[in-house]
Amino acid sequence: MANMAQNGNNDICIDLATLERRLRLFLPAHCLLLGEEDLRPYECDGLTAYRELPLAVCLPETEAQVIDILRTCHQLGVPVVARGAGTGLSGGAMPHAHGIVLSLARFNRILRVDPAARLAVVQPGVRNLAVSEAAAPHGLYYAPDPSSQIACTLGGNVAENSGGVHCLKYGLTVHNVLRIRVVSIEGEVFEIGSAAPDAAGYDLLALMIGSEGMLGVVTEVTVKLVPKPELAQVVMASFADVAKAGDAVAAIIAAGIIPAGLEMMDKAATAAVEPFVKAGYDMSAEAILLCESDGTPEEVAEEIARVTEVLNAAGASDIRVSQSEAERLRFWAGRKAAFPAVGRITPDYYCMDGTIPRKRLAEMLSAIAAMETKYGLRCANVFHAGDGNLHPLIMYDASQPGDWERAEAFGAEILELSVALGGSITGEHGVGIEKINQMCVQYATPEIEAFHRVKAAFDESGLLNPGKAVPSLHRCAEYGRMHVHHGDVKFPELERF
Amino acid sequence: MLTAHSLDDIVAAVRNADAERAPLRVRGAGSKDFYGGLLAGEVLDVSAHRGIVAYEPTELYITAKCGTPLADIEATLAEKGQMLAFEPPHFGGANAGSAGATVGGCVAAGLSGPRRQQAGAVRDFVLGVKLVDGTGQVLNFGGQVMKNVAGYDVSRLIAGSLGTLGVIAEVTLKVLPKPVAESTLVFDCDAAEAIRRLNDWGGQPLPVSASFWHDGQLWLRLSGARAAVEAATGRLGGNPTVNPEKHWNSIREQTHTAFVASPLWRLAVPSTAPSPELDGLRAIEWGGAVRWYAGEVAGDHEAMRAVAARLGGHAVLYRAPESLRCLEGAFTPLPPALFALHRRLKKAFDPQGILNPGRLYAEF
User: Fold this and answer.
1) Is the pLDDT assigned to residue A8 strictly greater than 80?
2) The complex's ipTM?
3) What is the DSSP letter of A140?
4) Where would I find the beta strands (DSSP E) of A128-230?
């Protein structure tokens, strides 16, 4: 039957004509995209290896329209994938073949900046950097700064619990959001959190942040603004060996210093970056560390002196301190441009996001070196060293048959090693569709069942972003059949098929 | 009373309670028995399930069993110059000779101390929990790393849930280095002026780590790098004070006379909310975001709730005689849709409602 699609989730047949007719009752023509040509730009997010065309894309302009869209989809049993700027790296905003994409791109207004209360109320489609720009005249800024901050939106940041290079000292999205306004799949509106601390009841803000669009659709966000430090300076240190660089990170923490940022790049990463950015990186070093100090000029001078002492004792072969704001920005420019720089030297790259205890870093990096040989692919490593969040960039060529499959297997092995070393499969990019199998490695049946119960408490219909973030137990059983870890068969209670 | 010495004991007690539909009242040191709704169910004392499981100073985390006294944890951290940055209250334990609050109770109650305005709340430092849900299932959420967005953040949801979603068997907390320097300044001013000044300072890059106004005096603590504290001290003026640690400890532990009252209300409001024309304001904390009320006005729960709502916040009946606690729940009632969601979440973790029933809201 033409125009009828099977919803993979619950086998409900969706009549596209009915969906279109219902949506047009309240959505103006310019808020609804239907033809393949218009849908194509939405087929993937920042993880381009996974693509799917949705039935339709809705671009609502008011909360009332969001409510009507969700109610309609709930009634018709149509899956809904919410989307911000589509910069996510785990396929969290990849469309559902039988669902709609709900783009919040037109919710792009900063509603209020309250400098006295140090907060801003924004719509979810506002870009991360725009919040700091609006706050700047008051000497304030919004702390989480994911590297995509010129493009990524607050709604997406809330969905992914985004971090950035300054989250060791200033926290993740979850530490910097005070309140959200959420619409449930049934079209009910919830206010969660407030400008007052410690809202009554359960901490649903913590649960919602990082829930990858599985629990509700955010229509408003109140964020905390913090005073901009008077000064920031960066120390750049070279190391002849990555293990020493890793030890230096631990030594800084052990000295009681929590730097504003603490980043590491290996030689493959600096080699990719330097010709592109000319940041002045030491090309002979096996690893470089960037350590930022911020605060009052006196405070920064004191901390830089202590950091320098620790880095020297840890065996740094060269140490440079940024002497001007321009130089500081240049040091950072290399780190912030690491992804595109790697993109210049390889047709495609695949970015991983595991976290590990910092002391296991050398172990992880030597394992990755062995995997490069095993899979016949190169890998550059950038590392939020302060919080143990590693971003290996696996280089491949999608036009070569078998290359992507090898890159994917390479990535999966890194993530599974992250878990084995005591870490997590994702520090800030989210599970999305990408790491759905590795969720079965990080969690056992009881936790995955609990996640499904949490999901059902918010969305019993299972229509919000189906198939993402939390795997079905059957999927885990399938994956477990292929991958037996440490001799344990996971999900032994499930039938194998 | 049931006593659990191990995770297995906790699981056995919960399974038994689940089978018999017999409510349990989970208890560490009992230091916060006064807090929340009325107590119900057989006591499950978990204070004997104690001990530090792992502490990695350079990884900035500590993992401890639920019954571990906060005092033990803080002593261990202090050896490496570290601390629990949210400064949780210990309160004296209910039993004679008790070491005071346990880490499990600390996370369950979600109460933070003076440093919260700078460092964040309990939930901001929870990295992972081992939870025994209402069916006796052991669940591990989060972990020991700083960043982990795999799966829903159930660990932080548990903070402040008052044991209603599961028995916290073990918890991993992020720890931080102690500040190198601290100093305390005292200013004479009224409440309105204190609120104005606190918000003004809050918008500047100053190392303010705690604030407390009571009876015409505003106390301000600065913490951080020595140079930063010295520079701020010079800039802000005010009177320096001797032995400030004792003062801040009396606020953290609520032994200060400002808190010695019953009923005692804690109003959480936007920090810039004006001080209403209302008698009974005993103290202001957290940069203006928490206001404590006692005296005649505190007997009128409808008035307290209304004032908090008008200021854009919420009110907690923090300490009260049993007669008032029977009449009025501790926490601000939730809008119907949000309340229904709470009940569904409760059911997801404790389907038969056997864990600390009524402790958060009377209905579950």
Assistant:
1) no
2) 0.97
3) E
4) 140-141, 177-183, 189-193, 217-224, 226-227
The three-state secondary structure class of A280 is coil
Tokens 């000295």 — which residue?
A: A255
Q: Is B274 on the interface with A (CB under 8 A)?
A: no
CB nearest to A202's CB, from B152, B161, B177: B161
pLDDT over 80 (residue A489): no
* Sheet containing strand B42-45, strands side by side: B2-3, B42-45, B24-27
Residue whose C-alpha is closest to residue A383's, from A363, A409, A366, A361: A361
Q: Assign A163 to helix, strand or coil.
A: coil
Instruction: Please name every residue paired with A221 in a beta bridge, in sequence order, or none if there are none.
Output: A122, A180
Q: What is the per-residue pLDDT for B156?
A: 98
Nearest to A99 by CA among A471, A467, A470: A467
Interchain CB contact of B192 with A (< 8 Å):
no
In chain B, the DSSP E strands lie at 2-3, 24-27, 42-45, 52-56, 61-65, 82-83, 126-132, 138-142, 167-174, 176-177, 181-188, 208-214, 217-224, 239-240, 264-268, 281-285, 290-294, 314-319
What is the dihedral sign for C-alpha B119, B123, B124, B128? positive
Closest CA to A197 of B315, B33, B126: B315
Three-point CA angle B98, B100, B106, nearest 5°: 140
- Kindly list the distances between the CA atom of residue B253 and the CA atoms of A345, B119, B281, in Å, as whole numbers in the listed order: 59, 18, 19
How far is the CA of A115 from the CAs of A294, B288, B290, in angstroms? 21, 15, 19
The reply to whether residue B121 touches residue A198, judged by beta carbons under 8 angstroms, is: yes
Residue A131: C-alpha distances to residues A42, A124, A153, A205, A260 (Å): 25, 11, 10, 20, 20
* Size of the A and B interface in Cβ pairs below 8 Å: 269
Note if the bond before B240 is cis, omega within 30 degrees.
no
Helices A63-76 and A16-24, packing angle to 10 deg:
150
Confidence of residue B11 (pLDDT cuts 50, 70, 90): very high
Contacts of B341 in chain A (CB under 8 A): 190, 204, 457-458
pTM: 0.95
3-state secondary structure (DSSP) of residue A447: helix
Q: What is the per-residue pLDDT for A490?
A: 53
Q: Looking at the partner chain, which of B141, B146, B331 has a beta carbon nearest the beta carbon of A388?
A: B146
Q: Using the predicted structure, report yes or no on whether residue A491 has a pLDDT greater than 80.
A: no
CB contact under 8 A, B227 and A296: yes
| Residues in chain A closer than 8 A to B57 (CB atoms) | 253-254
> Is B145–A254 a contact, with Cβ atoms under 8 angstroms apart?
no
Give the one of A197, A296, A387 whose C-beta lies nearest to B147's C-beta: A387
CA distance B275 to chain A (A): 14
Q: Is A154 helix (H, G, I), strand (E, B) or coil?
A: helix
Distance CA A221, CA A377 (A): 41
Classified as helix, coil or strand, B23 is coil
Cα–Cα distance between B275 and A315 in angstroms, integer? 56
Distance of CA A248 to CAs A37, A251, A388, B17, Å?
A: 52, 5, 13, 51
Q: Using a CB-CB distance cutoff of 8 angstroms, which residues of chain A are in contact with residue B266?
A: none
pLDDT over 50 (residue A9): no
CA distance A140 to chain B (A): 7
Q: Identity (one letter) of the amino acid at A347?
A: P
Query: Among residues A111, A323, A349, which one has the least CA distance to residue A231?
Result: A323
User: What is the rounded distance in angstroms from the CA atom of residue A485 to the CA atom of residue A487?
Assistant: 5
3-state secondary structure of B74: helix
Query: In sequence order, which residues have a C-beta less than 8 Å from that of residue B184 and are 6 or more positions away?
Result: B219, B220, B221, B222, B240, B241, B244, B247, B248
Phi first, then psi: what are they for A494, rounded to 5°? -95, 145
Contacts A140 to B, Cβ<8 Å: 203
Cα(B186)–Cα(B219) distance, integer angstroms: 5
Give chain A's largest Cα–Cα span.
73
